[in-house]
Amino acid sequence: MMNNFNWMTAYPEIFLLVMACVITLVDLGVTSARRNLTYVLTLLTLGVVAVLQAFYASTGETVYGFGHMVVSDAMGNWLKCFACVAMMMTLVYSRPYAADRKMLEGGELFILSLFSLLGMFVMISGNNFLVLYLGLELLTLSSYALVALRRDNGNATEAAMKYFVLGALASGFLLYGLSMMYGATGTLDLTSIFQATSTGHIKHQVLVLGVVFVVCGIAFKLGAAPFHMWVPDVYQGAPTAVTLMIAGAPKLAAFAMMMRLLVDGMLPLAIDWQQMLMVLAVLSLLVGNVTAIAQTNLKRMLAFSTISQMGFVLIGMLSGVTNGNTLSAANAYSSAMFYMISYVLTTLGVFGVMLLLAREGFESEEISDLSGLNQRSPLFAAVMAICLFSLAGVPPLVGFFAKLSVLQALIASEQISALMLAIFAVMMSLIGAFYYLRVIKVMYFDPPLTASTVSAEKHVKAVLAINGVMVLVLGLLPGGLMSLCAVAVVKALGT
Q1: Number of helices (H), then strands (E), in the chain
Q2: What count of Cα atoms within 13 Å lies in the side-chain half-sphere of residue 379?
Q3: b/e for 172-188, b at 16 or more Cβ within 10 A?
Q4: Of 162, 172, 240, 358, which sits most exposed with the smallest number of CB within 10 A?
């Protein structure tokens, strides 16, 4: 269904923007140190937007609007819904941490998180180079400000500067690649670019040069090696609450951007960009897993873990087209989407425990800080263990099924290179299991460094418990989420 100016495609985004502005004004009159009213309004806004997106997704319609620049489809709407839920959980976990560190003296944490979410929405909905880039910049500029939110903290300021400089460089790569594609095809519209690249009339060298720069820009946003330099430094230097905001929901938007650009726009060039993704996947798995072993800082270890996890997402993306045949595309891309959603859910649980263990003057960043956690708080230790086992790919947790589905999609291509990559990925996962199990060993078998018990508000504990249960349940019963991803991707490919 096409329309030159269809407002329906942007109702959730408009509501989110209006509420972000309203909350900004309301916050000026809030005097409580914990920003109670701002917090409640932000969560209510996110809840309403999540319900709206779920409703849109359940209709299964694909609607274009704003001169074909914006698309509202099942895949995008589900990703936006999950991004909303992820941001809600992030704010629930982050509030006690932020209050202890005087990060709530203004309402910036909540307001910037809403604007970064709006940027994600625009990225996910973009059917045009300019719209995608606009969403990307809104997300990244909000993220830079969030990382630097603790202005009196040297580590946070340094991390923000590194993030800004490297982020600007990556944006330049992406923009240059998009401009090359525009120069070659004469259009900014993804559907028109798909049609132009499938004709075979355009010089292949020009298109490939454009694709190289586009893939570099995407790899930076995902945190894939060798464009991973910012990930460990920013994860470690940023306040833990902000680290979770970068590690969680934005990964869903990065996946959507990859789908829009590479699949919706440049699928006829798949033979070229799949080779690039294969190199990125191998490097990410190698660098992420091997380097994580040497880390003693938990946030830094999780940063390298993220790099290796993105390697698996890339494996799903590079399995879609075999010898020009797209029959396995839906299976491959849906497995990558499932992997990304399960990764975000698991990451929320790990960082949630870290945030709740931190207290005023104590960051809970080192692996040794978790010593004897099971004796101090069995709930926190159990959730952390479940999430770490899931990241390691241990059955019957969701991480195992996510890895299995991605590897199945890879092996289904029946190529020698695919089989070799699958074997390599499994070997790297075995290496990766070591550093996850080391943290679990510290929690359950090392004596506690402090006798203090761990406390948290009841609603925060409830959210954390639900998070842990979801990681377990989705591993035991993955069919629902997997079929949701499959249907969403099939509909996205069908348009």
Answers
A1: 20, 2
A2: 18
A3: ebbbbbbebbeebbebb
A4: 172
Q: What is the pLDDT of residue 66?
A: 87
What pLDDT, on a 0 to 100 scale, did the predictor assign at position 1? 42
Site of tokens 């040069």: 209
Instruction: Return the SS3 of 414.
Output: coil
Residue 136, beta-bridge partner list: none
Q: For 297, list phi and psi in degrees, rounded to 5.
A: -85, 125
Q: Indicate if the pLDDT at residue 376 is higher than 50.
A: yes
The whole-number pLDDT of residue 436 equals 93
Closest CA to 117 of 139, 137, 95: 139
- Identify the pLDDT of residue 366: 86
Quick one: tokens of 430? Answer: 């075995």
Whole-angstrom distance, CA of residue 75 vs CA of residue 125: 10
267-305 core/surface letters (b: 16 or more CB in 10 A; e: else): bbbbebbbebbbbbbbbbbbbbbebbeebebbbbbbbbb
Whole-angstrom Cα distance, residue 36 to residue 86? 20
Beta 70-72 vs 63-65: how paired, if at all? Answer: antiparallel
Tokens for 36? 């109670």
Burial bucket for residue 256 (CB in 10 Å: 0-12, 13-18, 19+): buried
- Distance in angstroms (rounded) separating the CA atoms of residues 233 and 246: 12
SS3 125: helix
Instruction: Write down the domain spans for the chain.
Output: 7-494
* Residues 337, 488 contacting (CB under 8 angstroms): yes
Cis amide bond preceding 268, omega within 30: no
69 closest CA partner among 138, 1, 130, 121: 130
* CA–CA gap between residue 200 and residue 396 (Å, rounded): 47
**HEC secondary structure over 411-432:** HCCCCHHHHHHHHHHHHHHHHH
Residue 147 exposure: Cα atoms within 13 Å on the Cβ side: 28
Q: What is the mean pLDDT of residues 229-246?
A: 92
Compute the distance between CA of residue 104 and CA of residue 110 in angstroms, rounded to an integer.
Answer: 9
For the record, the structure tokens of 147 come out as 């990382």
Rounded Cα gap, residues 47 and 44, in angstroms: 5
**Helix, strand or coil for residue 189?**
strand
- Extract the tokens encoding 195: 């049609």
Are the C-beta atoms of 142 and 115 separated by less than 8 Å? yes
Q: Is the pLDDT of residue 324 over 80?
A: no
The DSSP secondary-structure symbol of 186 reads: S
Residue 276 in tokens = 């690039």
At 476, the amino acid letter reads: L
Q: Which of 95, 91, 88, 61 is nearest to 76 (CA)?
A: 61
